[in-house]
Specification:
eight-stranded mixed β-sheet, 8 strands, about 30% helix
């Protein structure tokens, strides 16, 4: 097996700027990219996984892997939030928050976002790994009528590796990354800019997720798309597991389950990130069409 070369990194996307959002007194940091010379068609809000930061979505090792840049170039506003307990909010929330609290804080930050910026026809939540958990809770709570859909990766409802199992550092690296050849040169140097400590209260909710998902899945009434990487090893995604996952989302008007070849768990950092991100934007287009035609809900 060949391994990735660790060459000098590419420059960060010039279109992206840092902002902060107020979430009922909690200040969340974020990265924002806006389309040039036109209002956004819609807004995609991206939520990173555990141990990462908003920079995960801005191609820290190679500009072609930046979701923020490609979304803005195709007419969408794109916002990558540092979830509660990460970035600026570590000062106020050094222990972080659990899934339910994060969902409430993030919902408040989205209200601030829509009050301050033009968001177009609505908001699609793009979430990776642990970020998918508060995203699903936000959708289940139904407090944001402008929510168009959910696009999730690196998350399911059934762990392939029990969360109570002790995993060595080497095994954890294989679970998170898969083969190193999947990533651009410099990923494991500049990619460190996207890493962040995982807050304790967030970690405490990991083992409870299957129970939590079973409780909230039936309350989700917007389109949902899951993507599982070829080398995804944290989550079960065989035919039986995916059939059960789909069946639990019985109120969602549409449930798509896709697979991304030549990708590991950290799907937005690899060579195939651009292909994956284009599919995210395609799903966003479909959600816009469904909302425009009144087909976002089951008859």
């Amino acid at each position: 097996m060949t391994t990735a070369r660790l060459d000098a990194p590419a420059a960060r996307s010039a279109e992206v700027r840092s902002i902060t959002l107020d979430a009922d007194g909690v200040t969340l940091s974020a990265l924002l990219a806006l389309p040039a010379h036109r209002p956004p068609r819609a807004t995609i809000v991206a939520l990173h996984g555990a141990g990462m930061s908003a920079a995960y979505f801005d191609g820290p090792a190679h500009p072609e892997t930046s979701f923020l840049a490609i979304a803005a170039s195709l007419g969408f506003a794109a916002v990558a939030l540092d979830r509660p307990g990460y970035g600026h909010s570590t000062r106020q929330l050094p222990q972080g928050q659990g899934v339910v609290e994060q969902a409430a804080t993030l919902t408040a930050s989205l209200r601030c976002l829509t009050a301050r910026f033009e968001t177009g026809a609505g908001i699609l939540l793009l979430a990776h790994s642990f970020g998918s958990k508060p995203a699903l809770r936000i959708a289940a709570d139904g407090a944001l009528p402008e929510l168009l859909g959910l696009d999730l990766s690196g998350c399911g409802d059934e762990y392939a590796v029990p969360p109570t199992e002790q995993v060595t550092r080497a095994a954890r690296q294989r679970l998170n990354w898969g083969p190193l050849r999947l990533y651009p040169p410099g990923t494991f140097q500049t990619g460190a800019a996207a890493l962040a400590p995982t807050p304790p209260r967030e970690s405490a909710d990991v083992a409870r997720w299957p129970e939590m998902f079973a409780d909230l899945a039936g309350r989700i009434r917007i389109p949902v798309r899951f993507t599982f990487a070829e080398y995804e090893r944290w989550w079960s995604h065989d035919r039986r597991a995916l059939a059960r996952l789909r069946s639990r989302l019985h109120e969602a008007p549409r449930v798509l389950i896709d697979h991304q070849h030549d990708a590991g768990h950290n799907i937005s950092l690899g060579w195939t990130a651009r292909a994956y991100h284009l599919r995210v934007l395609g799903f966003a287009e479909e959600c816009l069409w469904r909302r425009g035609t009144g087909k976002e809900h089951r008859p």
